[in-house]
Fold:
Amino acid sequence: MSGGKQAYEQPVDELFDKLRSSRTGLTSAEVKDRRKYVGSNNLGFGNIQVVRDGKVKSIDSAKLVPGDIIQLEPGDTVPADVITLEENVALLAGAISKSKTQALVIATGDQTELGRLDNFAAERSSIDPPLRQIMTRLFMRTGLIVLVLWASLFFVSIYTHLSSSDWIIFADGILLAVVPFGLVPAVAIMLAKTASHLFGQKLLVKDLLEVDTVGRTNVVVADLTSLRSNSPDATSAIVGRTHYDLSSAAAAEKFTDILNTQAYTQDDPTSVIAKATKLWDHGHVRNFTDSDKKFFTEYLNKRLASAEQTSAAYYADGNDTVFLCLISSAMQFSDDTIAAAAWTQKVGLEIKILSDESPESNAAIVGKLGLTDSAILTYTDAIDFFKTASKTSRIVVAATSYGRITKLAAINTDVSFASLILSIKQSRRLTKIIQKAIVASIADSSSLLSLVVVSLVADITWNIPLAATLMQIVAILFVTQMPLVAMLAWDKTIRKTSAVGVLFGPLAAALAYANFLFYFYRHNISPSHISTVVGPYLQASTIAFMTIAICQYINFLLLRGDLKSIKDHRHLLWTAGLSAFFVLNIIYNPLLQPLFGTGALSYLDWAAVFLAALLYTAARQFHIHTSKHSGKNLIRKHGAEKVLKHIQKRLA
Structure:
C-alpha cells in the first residue's frame, strides 16, 4: 500500500457470508475506520451506486473501501476488485459489467490488480525508446573512437614535427569526420514525416522517438471493438421457440414490445440456461424443461460458431429464474481487418485478441481472421501477459480502450486494428530506413576519416597539408549528407542495406586524395610545405571536396530502393538539386569562397572529379552484382534444391 499504510484485512469468506444474509452495507463509522487503511484510490472511474447505512447512495468511486456493496448495471465499468453477491464471480477493476448485480468490494486503488499494474507501468515508463538507445550507443562509440584517435594523434605529435596548430586542425578534422552530426537532424525529419502519416491514421504519439518504437512492435493486443467493422447491434433473437430476424423493422418493433413487457437482466447465456427454472413464452410462463435446455444450448452453439455475440435475458420471480430470450449480435470483420491479420501472420507479428467471449465464439473469431486459438487473451490473463512481455523486452502495441490495462504497452490507442497495422507497416519501413541512414552515415564518416588519416600521414611524411579544409568537411556533413539522409524517408521501396558498403568510404577517400595530388602533378607544383591560403591549394582541396561529395551522391542514389523509378522520386531530385546549388555556391560564390577555403574549378578539374566518381560507381555496381548472384543470395531467393539442380544441369 502506498504511503506506508497497511491494507485493510478481513477474511473474505466471513464477510461474504455476512453480507449474503444482510445487504445493508457498511455503516458510516465502519467506512471511516476502514478509510484509514486505504491509500491512493484514484483510478478515475467516476461515480458509483453504493449501499451504506441501508441506503443506496451515489458516491465518487475513489471513496470506496473494502467491504462496500456496490450496484452494477450492464455496461458499467467496475471501479474496484469485487465479487458478485449472486453469482460468486470475481470482477477486476476496469472490467465491464454484463448484468445488473450487487458486488462486494474486496480491494480498492493500489491494492487492485489494475492498481498494481499502474505501479508496474510507472517503473517501466523510465525505459528509453529503442531508437534513443541505438543513437546513444552510436554516439558513445563514435565519441570513444574520437578520444582514442585524439590520444593517438597526441603521441604522434610528440615524436614528429607536427605543430600544435596542425594538431588542432587534424583533431577537429577527426571529430567532424567520425561523429555523424548530420544524422540527428536527418532522423528527426524522418520521424516527423512518419508521425504525420500516423496522425492521419489517428495514431498520436507523445514522443517522436516512439514513431520508431511502433515499427519495432513484437506484439499487437487488440480488443473486439477495434476489430469489428460494425457496432454490436442486435441482429437476431429467439423468444420461446420463435426466431426474430431483427434486420426487419417489423420484427424488431415486435421484439422491442416484448422486452418492454418485463423488467429483465442480461447475462452470460450458458449460466442463465443452466440456472433457468421457468420459460417466458409470449406472455405465458411454463417450466423450463430438459428439452428447452437442449434446444437453447444448440441454438446458442450455432450462434457462437458464427462468431455472434449472444446474451440471455431473464428475470427473477421469487425463487425462480425465468428465461426470457436469447439476443445475438453478428460480428463482422472488414476486408481491411482480415488483410491486416493476414499480414501479421506473414511477417511473424504476434497477435493477441482481448476477449471474454465463450470458447466457441472465440474459435469462430480467430477462424474468421485466420489466426490460431492461442491468439485469444482473456482480460483476466492480460495483466500477467503484459508483465511477462515487458520482462522479455517485447514491444507491445495495443488497440484497445479497456480501462488502463494497456499501460504496459509501448503505445496504447483506441484506433481500429486495421489502422494500427497500417501504422506499424509505415513505422517498420521507417525503422529500416533509419538503419539504412545509419549505415550510409557511417560510410560517409569512414570516407572523411580516411581522408583525414591519409592527410595526417602525408603531413608527417612529406609536409602536405589536409586535403580538405575543416569548413569543407562541415559542408559535406550538412549540405550533402544531412539532406540526402533525410530524403531516404521518401524512398518508396526498401533495398536490403549491407554493412559492406561502409568499406567503400576509404575508396572514396583514396580517389579524393588521388585527385588532390593529381592537381599538383598536372600543374607541376610540389604540394610539400604549400600554404593553405594560396590558389593552388584551394583548388586542389576543392577537387578533393567535390570528389567526396559526388561519391556521397552516388552512395545515396544506390541506396534507393529502385533506380528505375528515380524519376518518380521528386523529393530526392529536389533535394539533390538544392544541395548541388549550395555546393556550387560554395565553390564559385566569391563571398563564400574565403569562408570555405574553396577555389573555382576548371573543365579539366571537373573531368578529374567525374572520372573518380565513375570509378567509384563501377566498384559499387560490381559489388552489388556479385552480391546479388552470390551462392547465399541465390539459395535464399530460389531455394537450395533448385540451385543444386541448376548446377547439376550445367555440369552434365
